[in-house]
Amino acid sequence: MFWACGHSFPCPSALKLHMRVHTGERPYTCEQCGKAFKETKTLKKHMWIHSETRPYSCDLCGVGFNSKYGLKNHMLIHSGERPHACDQCDKRFRVLSALKAHQGTHPTAENKPYRCYHCGKTFSSVGALKLHMRVHTGERPYTCEQCGKAFKETKTLKKHMWIHSETRPYSCDLCGVGFNSKYGLKNHMLIHSGERPHACDQCDKRFRVLSALKVHQGTHPTAENKPYRCYHCGKTFSSVGVSSSTRGCTQGKGPSNVASVGWGSSSTLIYTFTN
Q1: Mean of the pLDDT values across residues 41-58?
Q2: In a domain? residue 170
Q3: Span between the terminal Cα atoms of the chain, in Å
Q4: What are the C-alpha distances in Å from 229 to residues 49, 126, 151, 210?
Q5: pTM, two decimal places
Q6: Which domain holds residue 206?
Q7: Is residue 183 part of a domain?
Q8: In sequence order, which ranges of the chain are alpha helices (DSSP H)?
Q9: Backbone angles phi, psi at 101, to 5 degrees
């Protein structure tokens, strides 16, 4: 298999290291927790997590850190400062790594050379594209042995397994409901406060949790997230399979600006349109 993303490097070793972005290879493994890394320097940095030494402490809240860098980044929480700005939008971040991760969400031919032929979304690696394809195929290869529920990713299955755990160490002081994680308790507390911190940028609706906002945003049709249009009634869909709902449409004939034709589920004829 060959990759061509356009990056160039001054020496073979740098190219070899870069190729791990495409292959997903992580040859350096932590002996204490099993987490794997692409570079030795990243593994060494990770090893600080397992160290009990915390020589750098915050004067404001007492939290300890392994390095001056960790303490410096922590202090930005108290100051509210976000020194790292994205040059493609108005978002700002406390740490450089968060900025770099965010910048990867802005698709470019250079950092996301792998395109989904169903919806046009682009990805930085073959693995990410394969994972995304399950949205269209409906494949859920990871199954819970206790209840049979299936998932697209192993991390989602692991998160689900907490449901079957009897341990509920985080409880609500107001109503006594227990949760498996701090995150679950935090989201639950929004029910009592009435707070809905996640706002839709296309309408006036607000949501308690980010996942609910993302689901809602998918209801706003755009050329990017709903490229498949029913030639009978004009409704748009996120995938070829979903547009099988064109059954029952009896409205007029489709327009002439047809870019491509395909088949959805139940032998439904699908047209993809040019702008």
Answers
A1: 79
A2: yes
A3: 34
A4: 50, 27, 28, 28
A5: 0.32
A6: 166-214
A7: yes
A8: 12-23, 40-46, 68-79, 96-103, 126-137, 154-160, 182-193, 210-217
A9: -65, -40
